[in-house]
UniProtKB/TrEMBL annotation:
TM annotation in the entry: 26-45
Keywords attached to this entry: Membrane, Transmembrane, Transmembrane helix
Protein name: Calcium-transporting ATPase
Organism, as annotated: Helianthus annuus (Common sunflower)
Domain of life the protein comes from: Eukaryota
């Protein structure tokens, strides 16, 4: 077993490195975009009432 590993980066560097790695993950990016789309849809339905407005041409 090798015990000569050194800890060179501080806690801030580790967190930044993990965030950078997460930004490169395609699955995580797709998941974040899906959550944002669902939140946008829910907010739109909540504010617009989920029905056609009076000036809409297509319902």
């Amino acid at each position: 077993m090798c015990l000569d590993q050194t800890h060179t980066r501080g806690k801030r560097g580790e967190v930044f490195g993990l965030l950078l790695d997460a930004c490169r993950d395609t699955t995580l990016i797709i998941l974040i975009l899906m959550v944002a789309a669902a939140a946008s849809l829910a907010l739109g339905i909540k504010t617009e009432g989920g029905r056609c407005s009076t000036n809409a041409t297509v319902c």
